[in-house]
Amino acid sequence: QVQLMASGGGSVQAGGSLRLSCKASNHDFFNNWMGWFRQAPGKEREGVAVIYPGSGRTLYGDSVMGRCAISQDNAEHAVTLQMNNLKPEDSGTYYCVAANRRVGSWYDPKEFEYWGQGILVTVSS
Length: 125
What we know:
Blueprint: E1 3-8, E2 10-13, E3 18-25, E4 34-39, E5 46-52, E6 57-60, E7 68-73, E8 78-83, E9 92-98, E10 114-115, E11 119-124
Parallel strand pairs: 2-11
Antiparallel strand pairs: 1-3, 3-8, 4-5, 4-9, 5-6, 7-8, 9-10, 9-11
């Protein structure tokens, strides 16, 4: 059974930085997309960033472009999201995700079969 163990997050003031990590178990790490979605209260889930470990290709949501970087740890089968210059609108619950098949529209939550536990990120102004 695939398991995604996420860690990190917390509270920070606007302009600060946070790092989220997610380790995958029992997952075909190099042949499936992994990444992060987030959801703010009253809003739909939003794709933040994803990475394809087999090639290192990355994709980012428009709202975080230039402020976030997703990377991989091949030995740990983990992905990390470094978030900089955080804004209050970045607040929400962040979810680590992993696909188990070819992904079409990466920003569509339905493309990702596996979801980790949510991590709360709070950015105060």
